[in-house]
UniProtKB/TrEMBL annotation:
This is Histidine phosphatase family protein. It comes from Neoroseomonas eburnea. The record marks 156 as: Transition state stabilizer. It comes from the Bacteria. GO terms for cellular component: cytoplasm.
């Protein structure tokens, strides 16, 4: 049986004022300077990603802009389908607040590698557990509809962690142990009823100079 292969790309770095706050599922722009500085990463993705493939982005513009930059770097431009269920965690009333304001609002101990725990429920928003369920449902649906195909998804750090958690059967707090880098490539595969993690955080590699 041919596996369904998912190529998960985290969007590029967002602009500095957005990074100063908890932006969650706010629609924020990419950083223009980083777009220029990371040209090699876009060229690498343009050659590393499979052809042909179905491409999906989320309803947030930073994923569409990242896909457009990969096309501009050499990947043949293709249509983009929108999958809003792969959007970043909605942080409700916390969205837009400075990072330093968050600790006083938490009801649970913070995660050692993330500002809040996987079970923390932001007022008016969703917990990571709830986002994990949302993402998992869409991932399984897509794996069934596109069985045996290659699928590129430009998504977010949180939703890619949620996909890894689904593939590996992890709890929300275990999922938050993963650090998903901007413009990195994570690969998961569906083989029949089973999921396999093929790679996490692939990045361009430059060999050392010859002695």
């Amino acid at each position: 049986m041919t596996p369904t292969r998912f190529f998960l790309v985290r969007h590029a770095l967002v602009e500095p004022s957005a990074r100063a706050v908890l932006y969650g599922s706010m629609d924020v722009a990419l950083c223009d300077l980083a777009l220029r500085q990371e040209a090699a990463s876009y060229r690498w993705l343009a050659h590393r990603l499979p052809q042909p493939a179905r491409w999906f982005v989320t309803n947030l513009s930073r994923t569409r802009a990242t896909a457009a930059a990969v096309f501009a770097a050499g990947y043949p431009e293709t249509g983009l389908d929108i999958e809003p269920e792969f959007a970043e965690q909605h942080l409700g009333d916390w969205q837009g607040i400075p990072h330093e304001a968050l600790p006083a609002l938490l009801t649970r101990p913070a995660h050692p590698f993330w500002p809040h725990a996987g079970e923390e429920h932001p007022p008016g928003g969703e917990s990571f557990r709830e986002m994990q369920a949302r993402v998992s449902g869409a991932l399984e649906r897509m794996a069934t509809l596109l069985e045996g195909q290659d699928v590129v998804v430009v998504a977010h750090g949180g939703s890619i962690r949620a996909m890894l958690a689904h593939a590996m059967g992890l709890s929300p707090d275990q999922a938050l142990v993963f650090s998903i880098k901007n413009l990195s490539l994570t690969r998961i595969e569906k083989h029949g009823l089973d999921w396999r993690v093929a790679a996490v955080n692939e990045e361009p590699w430059t060999p050392p100079a010859a002695a």
